[in-house]
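Anyone up for a design puzzle?
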């Protein structure tokens, strides 16, 4: 069956525009606060900290709200709220205005980005889920990779251009979301801990945290690390990364659906660990770009696989719980990665990505042990 139905394609484009707008804001705000509002460097981190904390709350809250609100109604409502808060940054002229808006901005983003993935998985044929999820979350990676360059072009002239661009893109995105033909019913569940948490997801949850730790380090310290090596144009890393991840995600998803996940994910863990270790030893731009290709391949396959595995663990009816827990693990992994990279940087910059590479090896070991444990449990069930 075809993945690229009219509804899926429209939702894909809308989500790309939303993700692009989101990253334009979070890349620009720290620079805007530092240059225009003269905020101290030590306080800039409060922006991302507030954002990540509120986004996690939004992801958890989505599981509760879906008991009372139809999926698409919750998606459109949270999308409109996100767009209003995103557009409000155009009017800020004090740092505390940013901090006051950020919890609402993060909360609405956590809601909309979690619910939209659940809707997307409903539009994907079940037998091609991993491939379809790979395509859909690819737009987030593309947005993340493209925005640093675009943002720099815009705020070089005026920070107002960034926020006006965000408003323009979000108007188009909302229009595209409204024309998607999607019907859903409220599926009530008993309100208890299982609505927000499933112990079957804990292994993949922690493996995902350890895996995404490296991306948090890259996001925060790549430019600083490259400058320490005398390497210019380090932003090209993200262009190569986005290209490799765009090619890898759908291919990896197709392999996942057709042949299973174990060998595919083991190879991807090794590829990612190698890429991060290579990054820790770069001396030239060419080596930086080669390492980014390995890292893009690794993250491209693994991030898609985490979502597909989580859904397979808890079943069709609990897709939103699976998606929200993996999204939370990504938020926590990136946040912890940024924090740990800051701690390690006080010792030596070279150790940042070596440590990240070691965490990937730990993730690989945990993944293999969990896979063997599941096979043992399933064998006992079959014999019984």
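Challenge accepted. My sequence:
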């Amino acid at each position: 069956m075809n993945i690229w139905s009219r509804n899926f394609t429209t939702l894909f484009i809308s989500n790309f525009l939303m993700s692009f707008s989101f990253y334009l804001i979070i890349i620009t705000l720290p620079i805007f606060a530092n240059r225009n509002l003269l905020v101290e460097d030590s306080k800039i981190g409060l922006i991302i900290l507030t954002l990540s904390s509120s986004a996690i709350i939004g992801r958890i809250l989505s599981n509760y709200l879906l008991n009372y609100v139809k999926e698409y109604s919750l998606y459109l409502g949270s999308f409109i709220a996100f767009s209003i808060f995103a557009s409000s940054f155009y009017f800020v002229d004090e740092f505390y205005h940013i901090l006051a808006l950020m919890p609402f901005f993060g909360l609405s983003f956590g809601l909309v980005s979690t619910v939209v993935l659940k809707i997307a998985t409903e539009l994907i044929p079940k037998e091609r889920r991993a491939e379809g999820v790979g395509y859909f979350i690819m737009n987030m990676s593309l947005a993340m990779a493209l925005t640093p360059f675009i943002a720099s072009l815009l705020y070089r002239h005026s920070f107002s251009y960034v926020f006006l661009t965000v408003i323009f893109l979000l108007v188009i995105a909302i229009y595209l979301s409204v024309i998607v033909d999607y019907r859903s019913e409220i599926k009530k569940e008993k309100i208890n801990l299982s609505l927000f948490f499933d112990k079957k997801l804990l292994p993949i949850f922690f493996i995902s945290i350890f895996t995404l730790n490296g991306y948090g380090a890259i996001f925060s310290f790549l430019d600083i690390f490259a400058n320490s090596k005398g390497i210019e144009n380090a932003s090209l890393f993200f262009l190569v990364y986005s290209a490799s991840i765009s090619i890898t995600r759908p291919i990896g998803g197709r392999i996942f659906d057709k042949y299973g996940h174990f060998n595919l994910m083991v190879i991807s863990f090794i590829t990612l660990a190698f890429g991060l270790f290579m990054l820790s030893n770069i001396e030239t731009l060419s080596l930086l770009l080669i390492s980014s290709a390995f890292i893009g391949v690794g993250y491209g396959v693994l991030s898609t696989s985490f979502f597909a595995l989580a859904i397979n663990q808890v079943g069709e009816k609990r897709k939103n719980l699976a998606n929200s827990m993996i999204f939370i693990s990504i938020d926590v992994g990136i946040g912890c990665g940024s924090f740990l990279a800051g701690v390690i940087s006080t010792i030596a910059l070279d150790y940042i990505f070596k440590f990240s590479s070691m965490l990937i090896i730990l993730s690989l070991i945990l993944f293999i042990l969990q896979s063997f444990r599941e096979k043992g449990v399933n064998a006992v069930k079959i014999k019984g």
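A detail worth pointing out: Residues 44 and 339 are 13 Å apart (CA to CA).
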